[in-house]
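Can anyone check this?
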Amino acid sequence: MKLTVRILFILLLVLGLATTAFAQDNTIEYGDEIEFDADGEDELEVTFEGEEGDAVTIIVRSDADQDLMFSLIDPDDDEIAIFDSFTFGDPALIRIPLEEDGTYTIHVEERNGEELEDEVEIELIETEVLDLGDGAQTVEVTESFTLEYMVFEAEEDVVYFVYVTLDGDTDSTVDINLFQE
């Protein structure tokens, strides 16, 4: 009887550790760039710990030719940012401010409801919010990352001018889009 109880206890302990190890596989930290096996899954959820005042950039890549959609969910289970492949730009949520301490979730799915294919790579970058109210801001735009966001507080009935200066030998077009939050 004691042997049966010990074996059952060991079996439960091993299963508990295996479940914990699997859950830890779907976590990411600032500075990580990790590939997750999502082949055949309906969705992928990856978590990270964030603090109030942090700002993050999240880049999601897949070698499969899929229309990915992903969102950032705060500790209260509210969606605070979304990227839909139907929208303009790189597959990234850029400079998203975090408003509370806790566990945040990156939720990835295929836009048309199909299963995910192959591996999905997620990069989590701790960054800062670029506030034009603090003065001129400088960013480096590379070939692999071609979209940037900056913020400023605007007042009603005030005219604002946004100047963009390109340094170096640049062969590109600059588009400026203004969004009201």
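Reply from J.R.: I decoded it. The two ends are 66 Å apart (CA to CA).
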